Amino acid sequence: MTRWLVTGAGGMLGQDLVRLLAARAADTLALSRRELDVTDRRAVYAALRASRPGIVVNCAAWTDVDGAERQAGAARAVNTDGARHLALACAATGAVLIHVSTDYVFAGTAAVPYPETAPAEPRTVYGRTKLDGERAVLEVLPGRGRVVRTAWLYGAHGSNFVRTVIERGTRHPFLDVVDNQYGQPTWTVDLAGLLVRLGESAARGAAPPGVYHATASGTTTWYRLAREILRLLGGDPDRIRPTTTAALGRLAPRPAYSVLGHARWAAAGLRPLGPWQAALARALPALVAAGPRPCRASSQPHGDREGNGI
């Protein structure tokens, strides 16, 4: 049986991935940030030498976009150096590495979905550190590295936009939400399932190495997403009011267009994720049951980092 090792296992995506692997009775070593600091090169090598996984999924990341502008060195240590440490350790032990990355590697100025081959042009420290992490993985592991870019994540185990709307939608008469950023809301449970299928395909030699985009299909704005959340909860969507990115005055620029294309999945014999609306309807009961959001950490793996007005 192939052993899986998940870094950042305490984060929003990491927890859903570990739960899914457990449900499949997979041999899994789940390591949270406390259990494995990916910025520590020796600790990374020791963990992989001791456990000898066949597949490593890196869910550890610094995702505080504004915080990265203020603490560039700390963000780079996680997003770039951490990815390189894992890639080198995988090269030494023969493991496949699936590295989770972001839409922020693009400028966000496109008018059509970004294909996996689109030139990268990050405009934030966060995006640059993630792009350099991608390059490290593909350089060190040209035959065993897979980079999976995602965006607009939400789930039951971390701070994120959907949980914010659920919480504040019951306490505030109106919510002002950005209506000039376009993207694809993506449920971490769905993403976790696709990562598992990619890992299994890679282990069989059926999924080519390289870059994949993993977001739900379709396109919306944060404003329209918030309206859909309230509608599904039986609330009044007109309580959501549109605002602009500029009105928020965020330190780091946000991509205006974060829509990703999914053509590469066909080469792996896998289907991309389905429509965001259907996923949201399936996800809401679990998010409502999760209750109030936890306190936000500065480097929470793949948490709420969008800055969307609420």
SS-derived structural category: alpha/beta
The largest sheet is:
6 strands, parallel
From the 3D coordinates, which CATH architecture of the domain at 3-159 and 184-219 and 256-274 would you assign? 3-Layer(aba) Sandwich
CATH superfamily of the domain at 3-159 and 184-219 and 256-274: NAD(P)-binding Rossmann-like Domain
Low-confidence stretches: 295-306
Q: What helical percentage do the residues reach?
A: 25-40%
Enumerate how many helices there are, as a single number.
9
Order of helices and strands: EHEHEHHEHEEHEEEHEEHEH
How many extended strands?
Answer: 12
Strand-residue proportion:
15-25%
CATH class bucket of the domain at 3-159 and 184-219 and 256-274: Alpha Beta
**Distance N to C terminus:** 45 Å
Give the overall silhouette: globular
- CA radius of gyration is 18 Å
Mean pLDDT: 94
CATH topology of the domain at 3-159 and 184-219 and 256-274, what is it called?
Rossmann fold
Largest beta sheet: strand ordering: 2-1-3-4-5-10
